[in-house]
Amino acid sequence: xxxxxxxxxxxxxxxxxxxxxxxxxxxxxxxxxxxxxxxxxxxxxxxxxxxxxxxxxxxxxxxxxxxxxxxxxxxxxxxxxxxxxxxxxxxxxxxxxxxxxxxxxxxxxxxxxxxxxxxxxxxxxxxxxxxxxxxxxxxxxxxxxxxxxxxxxxxxxxxxxxxxxxxxxxxxxxxxxxxxxxxxxxxxxxxxxxxxxxxxxxxxxxxxxxxxxxxxxxx
Length: 219
Hints:
This protein is mostly beta strands and 219 residues long. Helix content is 15%, strand content 45%. The protein is built from three helices and nine strands, in the order αββββαββββαβ. Strands 1, 2, 3, 4, 5, 6, 7, 8 and 9 form a nine-stranded antiparallel sheet that branches. Strand 3 and strand 4 form a beta hairpin.
């Protein structure tokens, strides 16, 4: 058993020593809607946030988390400001059943192992700037803004498809973050000298979390 743990620790250590992708950027001043802007209110019932995470053994999990509020502000055809707030207590899993550990996984995600939703019940994103893209298959715009999870705020940049409709506006985007940069660390640490078990726990989970966001907003 000890030999197995040592071999596992060595394998995880070597994997963790690889260069981890950095996603966090410096925070930027949040964009404010002008008095001329038309502001649409995000509808939590028709909007959604989907997440995907995985272990180093390629075991993937996915689910959803609900929005509690948000807004998109336009001047003419240009999105100039916006935000959304996520209710972290609504984290759910979509690929497991009760028999295969759905409640256990959700409990881990909500608890001190990961998101600590009792202490940090919401996450949020606020736009700092939006740039229109020409001829890009990735989206219609590049969005920059500040993402707050577990009380930690960092800047991120991602492509989005943004459109105004007769009823309001829509925004669709997909982005990924390195969870360690937001303190989403299983076992409380990512340093090998802080305890082998905690180090192993955190590095059995891949660093990257993917979010797919679809916002539907109206007047």
